[in-house]
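Quick note —
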Amino acid sequence: MAAQTEQTSPKQALIFIPDISGFTQFVSDTEISHSKHIIQELLEILIDTNLIGLEVSEIEGDAILFYRFGNAPSSELLLKQVKEMYTRFHLHLKKYESHRICNCGACRTANNLTIKFIAHYGDISMNSVKQYKKLFGKELIVAHRLLKNDIESNEYSLFTDHLKEATQTWKDIESQAWTDLQHASKEYDCGHIQFSYLPLDPLMKQLPEIAPEEYGLQGEKSKMLVASAVIDVPIDLVFDIVSDIPWRSKWIPGSLEVVADVNTQLTQEGQTHRCLAKGPVMVGHSYHREKNTITFTETATNGMYSVVYTFVELEPSRTQFTLSMFMPKHAIKEFMFNLIMRKKLQKGFTGCFENLNQYCAGLLARGERHPYSVSMPAEKEAIRA
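Predicted structure written out below.
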């Protein structure tokens, strides 16, 4: 049976395409898992930074095809949209430098990615095939052709003359822009296209510095509980499994089926999660590796407690895994913890160790690796180079 296709009448619309440059080389030359997460996070940031009522038509690997039917936005709103997307994009990349702990190629070179914007205006139609919708029309082709041009800058925002003519406040753009507007044109198979563009380099100088964050418990602390076990696999494998936040539900007894409140899929300073239904949101921090030991800490964002994870290599295929729990020093709360929670948590930690050992034994038996890994150098300071 032939699929039913419906096409709407052409309507005038803004076509807006943010394009992440360097994507192809980035994915080709670096670790695919981490590069996938990085690009996904950047695309999500662009989608969330929507100030002018844009709709997403499709995500095209390294670019997003946005559209908005109706009148063209004012030049002020258009510039505000570009600036906000650019700022949030690069602040996120800067965070990889200040918060990352992984030294793989993807994490190490993420800050080399750049972004450009194509803004066009014209008639487009909407094709509907069953439940799927797709934009269609010559002006859409024009917008995509403009992604390839002779502009020397790596980062810019391009505005076609069609958009210029449709924007009533375009005459004000010179006074609103962060730098001088440049003018150019190019011949394509769809015709001769005239456009203007703004280099985005000046906006880089306006980016705020990433302020250092303190995630740990404040003030004097008391060690409330220590639990330890030997896991019969190499230290890096145990660390990869334990630091894999989405995987927590697989080995922590009583955890949520799907870990919640995860702000990033990449293990890094400031990564958050909640794996217990009635538990607080936890934040990971203070990752450190030295010789045969790896440590990191997770602290409840409500300041109730923290857990220090310590991995010590006993032999090439044997790792001692220790969990140490701390609370802010408080006589009454410590007494209640020892009275009510200690045995329950001790039992829970024992269950964690049993599940980890069982999972690791299965991996070894099948000759497999855990699907997520972190490249953490012997000295954490090495990743800052």
